[in-house]
Amino acid sequence: MTLDDATRYQLLKLIEAHPDYSQREIADAMRVSGGKLNYCLKAIGVGKDG
After folding, report:
1. Under 8 Å between Cβ of 11 and 18
2. What is the rounded CA–CA span in Å between residue 38 and residue 15?
3. Which residues, including other chains, have CB under 8 Å from residue 38's CB and lie 6 or more apart?
4. What's the pTM value of the predicted model, to 2 decimals?
5. pLDDT tens digit sequence for 1-50
6. Which alpha helices (H) appear in 1-50, and where do they start and end?
7. Residue 3's closest CA among 42, 34, 46, 30?
8. Residue 23 near residue 34, CB atoms below 8 Å
């Protein structure tokens, strides 16, 4: 799975700044769908499959 550097950076910074956010809140903040966020989380090794 590949993920562009800008998206990876945005996701990691958001998680670092708001560790209490739910996946829905992260997706909303990134302006992506829940499915896209799940793909991103899996790509960086976070989540139940990561």
Report:
1. no
2. 14
3. 23, 47
4. 0.82
5. 678 999 999 999 999 999 999 999 999 999 999 999 999 999 999 876 54
6. 5-17, 23-30, 34-43
7. 42
8. yes
Q: Are 42 and 49 in contact (CB under 8 A)?
A: yes
| Distance from C-alpha of 7 to C-alpha of 41, rounded to nearest angstrom | 11
Instruction: Please answer whether residues 11 and 4 qualify as being in contact, where contact means their C-beta atoms are separated by less than 8 angstroms.
Output: no
Dihedral angle of Cα 6, 10, 11, 14, to the nearest 10 degrees? 170
- CB-CB contact of 37 with 26 (8 Å): yes
Q: Provide the sign of the torsion angle of the four alpha carbons 27, 48, 1, 9, taken in this order.
A: positive
How far apart (Å, rounded) are the C-alpha atoms in residues 36 and 19?
19
